[in-house]
Amino acid sequence: MSTNLTTCEWKKVFYEKMEVAKPADSWELIIDPNLKPNELAPGWKQYLEQHASGRFHCSWCWHTWQSPHVVILFHMHLDRTQRMGSVRMRVFKQLCYECGMARQEESSMLEENIESLVDNLISSLREQCYDEDGGQYRIHVASRPDSGPHRSEFCEACQEGIVHWKPSQKLLEEEATYTSGASKPMLQEASGYSFFSLRWCLFWASLCLLIVYLQVSLHGSVFL
Fold first, then answer.
1. Are 152 and 165 in contact (CB under 8 A)?
2. For the chain, what are the domain ranges?
3. Which of 51, 110, 184, 204 is the most buried (most CB within 10 A)?
4. Which compartments is it annotated to reside in (predicted)?
5. Helix crossing, 3-21 with 111-129: angle to 10°?
6. Residues 70, 122: contact at Cβ < 8 Å?
7. 130 versus 141: which is more confidently predicted?
8. Which of 75, 52, 53 is nearest to 124 (CA)?
């Protein structure tokens, strides 16, 4: 998926969902590669998506990689009198760690991922621009098995001082739930193994006592 197609998909999904969420207002989505975190004009709000999932393709060595730590920055503004709003958006890039070329690559995303990210954006818009309850945000949990630790030296967001790769408390709770659920069969297997081991120990101990008893009884009858 090319960058232009990804951009068009972002705008298509955003306009469709905003038409449903706020049909009385007119919103626009602008891609701004120079957007800076926490540098806001008066009246503007910020939303930072820290754990988006995207695929990167190196234009030099053709290496591709998946990342669950794509950072997307949004700046939002609503003119209530004109009933017009604007969202400026920047998707941070990553460097290829295979060839080491100093060319930052843009990510491509599946349509279903874009839809869930736009849902999060609209939730933030409701909260910050309309003073409404934005509802529940959709958490993007990294797919398992994990693709390895985040390499901040190749991440544009990290190089600009955005600390995002550490999992949130929600992600930690979900990971703990996943881990505990996976460990239950192992615990049950271990407890079953201990049970059978104990039973076999009792069996052999009883057999040994029986043999000793028979030997003592046999020797007693011989002496008599």
1. yes
2. 2-164
3. 51
4. Membrane
5. 50
6. no
7. 130
8. 75
